[in-house]
Amino acid sequence: MQSMNLPATAPATKRVFARLVVTVATSLCLIGMAASAANAQSIRVPGFLPSTHGFAFSNSFPSVPHFTIDIAGAQVPIGDASNGLCGGMVFAARDYHEFGLVRPTMTTPPSSGPLYNHFVSRLYDSFNLPGGPVKYLNLMNPDLPDHETWFSMTFGAPRGRAWITIVEEWPRIKADLDSGHLSPMALVLVKSHDPFMMGHNHQVLAWGYDLVGSDLTIHIYDPNSPNYDNATVSLNIGNPTATTAMTYSGGSQLWAFFRPDYAPQRPYNLFDGMLIREVSGAPVFAVIGGAKLWIRTPTELDAFFGGWGAVTVVADGVAAAIGDAPRDGTVVRETDRPEVKVMDGRQDRWITSPSVLARFGGWGVVRLVPSQSLSAIPDGPPVF
Predict the structure, then answer these.
(1) pTM strictly above 0.90
(2) DSSP letter at 242?
(3) Domain extent listing, the chain
């Protein structure tokens, strides 16, 4: 705001009044800024970032069937993974987070095996059959207005895309995020009467949001952009009766979005603390902190982990489907070493004293892990 420069000869009352106007205007600006800051919300799901908890490969699968079915002795392929498995990746990423599993280290999308099968299973779950396709078709329908009409507001005609997105669907996503849970989002990217265009839509996973006044930015894990923490969906939610511009960082036109219903599914029936061996493999792994840690000898298996009777045989490929560094915050000690360490950013950090350990929960939280299982994990700075 420019200052008012009155001539020195101006009456004193006018100069005082001008200063008062400037002071009041400045105060109102500051009050408005303070109110905006007070109304701002910034929510993140604890312990999740796409770069470390989303899958490290893109939604670019080879042309292989989802599965095959036997018809009169002939194997008939169903589906084509090259069309994308975004819904399956989104549901699986939330599964991994819900059950504390560490993402696999692979950087190429699988074309078979347990992880691929989990993606396919969760893809069909993400369709929310039979109602899910109806939602897509409704929001894709070119005849559905983007805004409210007199008929929709007076006679109960179908609501417009902005109203459905802002009033009906966004609160469901917000409730997930506010309660510390990731939230699947179905993005409507096309308008068409052709139901075969449904596959041109997309699914992402919300992991946080910023709301400043009515300006909303939703932070998403986008399976099309692996290891990218800055993918977003943005819109202004202040007037759901009007056509509302929506921006998706993936570059496509975004017309609407909704929340598919999600129910958790434990990947491969794994749980923390179990011992596993694959059908065709000899190594035995302890699942600790959501990661697989190799138990190198039968002697160690018997002495510290319950012996062969505690081992569960799992399908080939399950070990590759989980990572090999425990999740952040896991406090560990190798069976053959005295040092207690905490995982932090894929590094292990030495906890230097019992008083420091007490800050992490004391001796009761220390997990015993196999000897040498931390050798490939970089050492971080000690914790004092």
Answers:
(1) no
(2) S
(3) 50-258, 270-369
